[in-house]
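Researcher: Here's my situation. A collaborator sent me these components and asked whether they could plausibly form a single complex. I don't have experimental data yet, so a predicted model of the whole assembly would be a useful starting point for our discussion.
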Amino acid sequence: MAIGVASFNLLQPVIGNYFCLIDENMWGIIRQNVGVTGGLSSQGLGNHMMRLRPVASAMRNYSSATKEMTVRDALNSALDEEMAADPNVFVMGEEVGEYQGAYKITKGLLDKYGPERVVDTPITEAGFAGIGVGAAYHGLRPVIEFMTFNFSMQAIDHVINSAAKSNYMSAGQINVPIVFRGPNGPAAGVGAQHSQCYGAWYGSVPGLKVLVPYSSEDARGLLKAAIRDPDPVVFLENELLYGESFPVSAESLDSSFCLPIGKAKIEREGKDITITAFSKMVGYALKAAEILEKDGINAEVINLRSIRPLDRATINASVRKTNRLVTVEEGFPQHGIGAEICASVVEDSFGYLDAPVERIAGADVPTPYAANLERMAFPQIEDIVRAAKRACYRSVPMSATA
Amino acid sequence: MAIWMRKALISTAVRSLRTAFASHRNPVFISRSFGSSQQLEPFSTDDDYDDHDHESLDFPGGPVSYSCEMRFLPGSSEKRVQCYRVLDDNGYPLSSTQFQHVNKEVAVKMYSGMVTLEAMDTVIYEAQRQGRISFYMTSYGEEAINLGSAAALSSHDIVLPQYREPGVMLWRGFELQDFVNQFFGNKNDIGKGRQMPTHYGSNKHNVITVSAPLATQLPQAVGAAYSLKMDKKDACVVTYFGDGCSSEGDFHASLNFAAVMEVPIVYICRNNGWAISTPVTEQFRSDGIVVKGQAYGIPSIRVDGNDALAVYNAVAAAREMAITEQRPVLIEALTYRVGHHSTSDDSTKYRPVDEIEHWKTSRNPVSVFRKWVQRRGWWSDEQESEFRANIRKQVIHAVQVAEKTEKAPIGYMFSDVYEKLPSNLMEQEKLLRETIKRYPQDFPKDVALGI
């Protein structure tokens, strides 16, 4: 099956029809920008429209009543609704206001809520992360945007030593209802310092909640949950998913919609093998499942949605059903999400495993820029298919461990 | 001991301390080559303090005299710090300026470097728009800073750039083909296909590879300068950064350390008015970056960044001072970012088009310098059109060659993670090659595998 290059033309005229619950005013702004920029849009740093790696879009049945929404709009609408509902919620980061957001996630918010609630900052991650934490200490609910989580490293002391640990250290007197959000993991052709996945790092810290949305419904429900949550949340998005459209239920478009934190979603039921994934890899896993179906392997795909807390119950229940497991992630292999999932399954469901757990992760190298090397540094759909077959038949030699 | 004796001893001690610390009440920037018209005003006049009491006390850091008046230093002075300039907008040397002349060879190399940089920017930006490369950042408007500073340095000076200084590499002999190979990530890329476009570097040319997170190069530059100091080399470190970068924590750590450790480093700030869409008025409220240098005890100067000769002279003088006195020096070059932040940006969205036009035309650093060079008889209109046509062809040719060259080979994926290739990566590479051989249909044919 040929994997086509997904179109990132963000300016499909069809976008305008779908969002009846979104404020008219905001839409006026979006439409305006759509008109101005033309085909080669230069929206934020994430524009790699011309030379792209294939992004899987699983085939979906569209009922006539199904609405579609891009992840970008899902995040934008979630922010908008939460800011409207609670005057303590505010957004802060580089280029979030006048520029409408480096990736246009905060488009229209400045015009609607003003500069006191949509704060453009000077360039200092350590500065604005610290300011956000301080604001959270005193009752505000900041949503801090990192232009990419790679830059969060310049502020990581505030995220971990302050945001994550303050509630505990203060014996519950200081809680930190803050959300740190932004794109995580690789994009396309951005090299080592812009491609790392931080799921494993943040996922290991007690005191933090770490969420990893995949679809638009995930993005809306999880971001709203994150903003309402009294604990600090690290919200890891994906640049290449921003422009992708997903069907959204009527329920998810309601402003009170919220997804529970810590619950994974079974995207596709199956009985032969469990494939866990998060963020963009969910799409790849779904594609791989279709390919496997043709070979008589019925795969169950779990969208983790939450790295911390990790939904061990759902994962284990699935493995107990299928007896085989493949974990997929884009981050580095050592100490990764797959390692934790594997340990959990071995601890809780060892007797149910019919094959060793297969871990698929990014290569154990800083991400190279050259397109061919980059492609080989990250899991592709074919890698997932081969690993699943190995777990089912063991007819392919086992992969090298890191 | 009798009180009077003690007092006398104390005041003697104070006097000797005063002389020892005299240099601490230092003016902002001293160099023999600058005329009085360009002398900078200290932040606040010291005279007023001297008028009051002669009593002072030894506090840590040196004696401080008292004042009966409770006076707050203003957040900023009424007049902005003046800007050193050699050429006016029409390329005529200002009558009262003293400056060092550059000879014909240097002038022509500077000017042709500026035109080459412009040509490269134009062609490569276009190539990105056509989808041939993924990303690019232009240096329009900052050609004088690029080449003027590069020309004043020696090849032994270590450069830590931010990302908008390819002219420095050009000056030092980095070839057009090398640049373009880097943009395409092909097998001839000196950077082995590792880095995004414009994140270049070359040990051979003493330019440290560009690091994307802002301001990380600043404390690193101090470290490198410290090693030069330890080795007593006749060289300094030169590090570049933009106005936005000065907000980062690393900027402050770097300047502070450089002053305390007394290392030979020249800071060159390209204050081009914009950090993506953030104008300087929203970046900081100080009078630019020049006063920040002073705040850390670093002699600092503000220059017209669009005046190649001013930049050249300031950098030459700063370098001299940094090396002979083993201390940091800061240069704030005022300029304007004529282009967009990068190919992912459209700056007409947040700033007026006529503002951009104004700087592109009437304050263009390339045309100002051209006028001066031509008037010296070292360049002509003929040479201009010939050179421009020629260089454009060269860049286009480099693009065509780079595009056809095979991509970086697989081996480049695993090498250089560590000094020595570890066993697990050796295993992975072997397995990858086997997998490609066994399942060629899973790997795209149009992207070269480069085996």
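Model: Some features of this prediction you could bring to your collaborator: Chain A has a mean pLDDT of 85. Chain A touches chain B through 56 residues (CB under 8 Å).
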